[in-house]
Amino acid sequence: MSAASPSILVIRRRYLGDIVLLGSVFKNLRLHWPAAHLAALVEPAYAPVLALNPDVDATLTLPRRLGEWPAFLRQLRRTRFTHVLDFDNTEKTAAIARLSSAPFRLVLTHGFPVKLRACYTHHIEDPAAEHETRPITDYYLRALPVAGVPVVTREIQLTPRAEDLAAMRALVGAAGPVLLVHPGTRSASRRWPAERFAAVCDHAQDRLGAQAVLVGGPGEHAVIAEILRHARTHILTLTEPLSLPRLAALAQLSRVLLCHDSGPMHVAAAVGTPVVALYGSQNATLFRPVGDRHTLLQPPIPCVACVSPGQCIPGDSYRNHCVQNIPVDRVLPPVERALRG
Fold this sequence. Notes:
CATH class of the largest domain: Alpha Beta
Oligomer: single chain
Number of domains: 2
CATH architecture of the largest domain: 3-Layer(aba) Sandwich
Low-confidence stretches: none
Strand order of the largest sheet: 3-2-1-4-5-6
Radius of gyration: 21 Å
CATH topology of the largest domain: Rossmann fold
Shape: globular
Number of helices: 14
């Protein structure tokens, strides 16, 4: 590889939102080195979303079985990476960085000591006091100047495939604007009440001529069923979990996504769809969606009217019910604005 066309491996094993938010890293790498070979290393479940990023040339998946490692390591060495950017900081990813034999190997860390420091040529530590005060995309972009790459954009772009757009358009078949609703979240404590989701869907369909569409991932059938029990209008429900490319297509066809702080929130933002996101006590600055068309709703923090005294654990956003302090009448105005276009 020449200096004008390096081969770069970006490591971030999971999760969906974290991987989507790496889009600005790839965009700046592509702008600086148009002829570069840009690859990502992720867990297999997240590989499909990277196929929608126009700046990613290849995706490597982390082996799940011992017998898959020899072929993976042969591919790693055969590609002859010149740069490795590791955003995971684990023993396994450190070993992968070293085994790549790339001359430039950087690890970015915050809050934890670097693992296997000898595996890297460069290390950046983000001070804890600063890490919580800016978006995670700014944290990722700290790696680029060390590699000689200027930061000229924070753009993140996913481009749904034509066949997925056609399939989702046929499935939804809505004459009016689509309100996409994803009620899932990694922690049940962060979940907005089902009856409030139902109230927003009913309002959008009764008053605004919209089509509400409920989507969920594996294990979220019960959440969706509870919303349907409270709804007065018929809500279109996709009973089977969508693939990530089809979720991106459906998000692009929708006028707005109502959701929690989640991976699908970042997918929607990356395809250009406005988001109305419901936050509890978690840091709404760190993982905010990229762009200025989004509305983030959060109750006063620290909490002034605890809804679950004795159950909430101060300081643990995964065990606080603060999101329940967001009333329906705060959610309706931004949803209405987005649906009216």
